[in-house]
Sequence to fold (323 residues):
Amino acid sequence: MSKVSTTHGLDLGSFSRRQFLKTSALAAGALALPLGPVLAADKPKVGLVMKSLANEFFKQMQAGAEAYAAKNKDKFDFAAVGMKDERDFAAQVDAIENFITQKYNIIVVAPADSKAMVTPIAKALKAGIKVINIDVALDEKAKKKAGIDLAFFGPDNRAGAKLAGDALGKALGKGGKVVILEGNPEADNAKQRKLGFDDSVKEYGLKLLDSKTAHWETEEANTLMTNFLTQHPDIQGVMAANDSMALGVVKAIDAAGKSGQIKVVGFDNIPAVGPLLKSGKMLATVEQYGAQMAAMGIDYGLRELAGEKFSGWVKTDVKLITA
Fold:
């Protein structure tokens, strides 16, 4: 049994997301991970279940996975499913159920709800399907209650959020007035990123004016930030738990005539934040290599299908991105 609790040997940080998505062939070649032995005459079927495809991060994840699947089409068949929006939990449950019905061999899943997704995943495992949990960890108590032992393949979200929070803390100094826009409260990564931001607030002596969820969504974040600006006109910095929300934050700041006056940090390093970093409308974001993460999840699923067993936490890289 392989149990890993430190960063996996695959250096995800060595890959550029833009390079990875530049062309399918080049991207897939860059991720030519060892697949292990051919398992059977019939190719295994691999399903990827993502969160909202309205979120650029998951569009990139899908593109990376499809590029990897195209490079390895002789080894497995592939299908990807996403949600309409970040709270469309039923779509993820339906996707798992459909993959079970269609007798898929491997399901790679980034859960939208760390507790609710345990039941359908347990059903998949009972059906003999290998399930790889990426990006967002399933709830440990829920897993224990369901009687499943499943490894988590993904980043340290708390540490990643602290990288962004620390950048803001250094820029503002002690007493800097900040707000936090949290992710979906049902998702473990949202909880971890909030904890990471809280760590930075404490370490740098920042003054936290407010902290509320915008459920990962751009427009909801725009509305929430507009309200924050009304309630707290002296805001100096914003910690957004993902870049989709950071886009809504910047839009609200611009509408309030405070463009460039409030420092904003995010998480995901989606392409849309690049110009905002260069212009100074955002201070920093965090790269977590979503495209590579999905490809890695497929690889681990194939390895489990070949007989390997993983447990614990297989960490993937995070990196602070600034102008």
Notes: The CA atoms of residues 197 and 282 lie 16 Å apart. The chain has a mean pLDDT of 89. The longest helix spans residues 188-204.
